Amino acid sequence: MLPAGHLGCYGHLSEGACRLCGTERQVTATRPAKSGRMDRMADILLFSYGTLRQPEVQRTVFGRELDGRPDEITGYSLGEVLITDPAVIAASGSAVHPVLRPAPSAAGIPGTVFTIDAHDLAAADAYEVDDYTRVLVPLRSGAKAWVYVLASEAPA
């Protein structure tokens, strides 16, 4: 859960100056990729079906808009959860957020899969309130991605 009013720099997880405290953070952890270019840490797949697809939420959480591709998750149904964290409500514009619940026979839920790094994943973890937990799931495309689901009903 995020401290109210300090969403943009929580843990200084995105590159650039914090809007509230003004301190700078630069991403310096790079490694050579097999292609020869420098990558920011290892690539991680994150599937979003809800607010993390909103450009304004991405700018607040990650400090930039993410590029993603459509995909789908199966074995879950879409529900709603009431958010009480003021910073998360301010970022998303709503107190009611979608949430995935296990439902083995449910039809697929469309969403977007983003390729991110460990800093981005930590920022997403900080944004998601305690009602959510992150699990690794297969997508319709065959890729495996992290996704946030209802914590009280998450698979063990």
TrEMBL record:
One of its GO terms (molecular function) is transferase activity. Keywords: Transferase. Residues 46-152 form the Gamma-glutamylcyclotransferase AIG2-like domain. Coiled coil: none annotated. CDD domains: GGCT_like (cd06661). Pfam families: GGACT. InterPro entries: AIG2-like_dom, GGCT-like, GGCT-like_sf. It comes from the Bacteria. The keyword Transferase applies. This is Gamma-glutamylcyclotransferase (GGCT)/AIG2-like uncharacterized protein YtfP.
